[in-house]
Amino acid sequence: xxxxxxxxxxxxxxxxxxxxxxxxxxxxxxxxxxxxxxxxxxxxxxxxxxxxxxxxxxxxxxxxxxxxxxxxxxxxxxxxxxxxxxxxxxxxxxxxxxxxxxxxxxxxxxxxxxxxxxxxxxxxxxxxxxxxxxxxxxxxxxxxxxxxxxxxxxxxxxxxxxxxxxxxxxxxxxxxxxxxxxxxxxx
Length: 187
Prior knowledge:
The structure is a single chain. By secondary structure, the chain is mainly alpha-helical. It has a single domain, classed as Orthogonal Bundle (Globin-like). Helix content is about 60%, strand content about 5%. The protein has helices spanning about 10-15, 40-55, 60-70, 90-95, 95-115, 125-135, 140-160, 165-185, and strands at about 20, 25-30. It has a two-stranded antiparallel sheet. Helix 6 packs across helix 8. The chain is globular and about 45 Å long.
């Protein structure tokens, strides 16, 4: 079963070419199997992550990221059982389960950022995380939606301190995370 997302996604295009752009957004089905970050990109990711941590707590960012996902892509809200009853942003902000999940996502990113220089082309923790998400009906393209929501959060939070170089480094980083988690998914 393919992804049932907005019209921007074309399942056949994803099968033929796993990386393509629509409306200046890049979508991937399976990123490269190796983390291709330079030392400078690792430094950019870590410095922007440190700056983000200074600006607030992960739970706050996690809540905002989940709200962006649910508002911009309500068609995937069903994979979070707790989200079915959340219809307004206010209800989302008040949901303990949403807050917990958002915090867990940011904690997982934090763990991965801390070991960026040790990641290789098969990261067991990320593959296992992908396997876990199979139980919820997740698909690789859902992780791309999460990546895009995360990119909005970090860009909005850091403003002028988030350059195009930071953005590119984070995209490379997330695409690796997605490819590893995708190895664990059974779609």
